[in-house]
Every structure is written in C-alpha cells, then in structure tokens.
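Thread: quick sanity check before group meeting

JM: Hey all, I'm pulling together slides for Thursday and realized we never actually wrote out the predicted structure for the chain we discussed last week. Dropping the sequence here so it's in one place. If anyone has concerns about the input, flag it before I start.
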Amino acid sequence: MIAAADFLAAARAVAREVLEAMFFSEAEPVSCQHLEECVAVRVGFHGGEMAVMISPQLAVAASAAFLAEDSDEVTTEQREMVSRELANILCGAVLSRLHPDQRVALRAPEMAAPDFGSGAAVHQCFATPEGRLAITARLDCA
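JM (edit): ok, ran it. Output follows.
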C-alpha cells in the first residue's frame, strides 16, 4: 500500500522534474484553483489510479514543446496524445520513485472526466508559466 503523504511528495518532485526536462516548463505547487476547462487523463495502476488535469493553454504549449511544433499547428489529436503521454510519464515516475526496486505496470492512459479530488487520497495543483496542472490520486482502488 502506498501512503498518501509519500505519493504527494513524489508527485510534487516528479511534476517539477518532468515538466522541466521534457516540456521545458517550470511547475510550482500552488493552492487549488481548479480549471473550468481542461484536458483530463486517467492512468490506472496496481493499487490505484492517477488523474492529470491540464489547462488548454498548457496542453498546447507542452504539445508544441514535446513535438517540436509551432503551438498554432498543434491539433486536438496531438494535444490529447501528448497529454496522455504526460500523464503516463508522471504516473510511472511517481511509482518508480516510490518503489525503485519493483516493476511498474500501468494501464493505458485514457481521456477522462476531470477529477479534482473529492474524496481522493492525494490532490495537488501546479502553476506553470503556460497554465495549470492538477494531479489527483486514488489509492487502493484497483
């Protein structure tokens, strides 16, 4: 079983590292200001699931950076693909940090309804120069 505090600490560190290294953006944990509109992705794993909600502006900017495209040329399909990949990377990196000696098995990321943490074990919002990101994790639900 994963402790919520450990998952939250890992999620905070991983979000910063991943956004900076792979998407050329900085992320800072902030108090919750939930997104009215967002791209939402869910990734299941043994022991729970993680949802990532990304503001449209950040989803486009991250897609453009990841694909080396101009932001005006990013399609909806590309934005969703990169958002699924971002959620997959974040979830895998959090679990690998928590269990470095174990194999991490994730279910395929899927587009989902936004989940801002009502009843969740873990919830954290982040601000980036391009927009907002929120991570919610429900533990022991898989």
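AS: nice. Residues 4-139 form a domain with the Chemotaxis protein chec fold (CATH 3.40.1550.10). The chain has one domain: 4-139.
JM: adding both to the slides.
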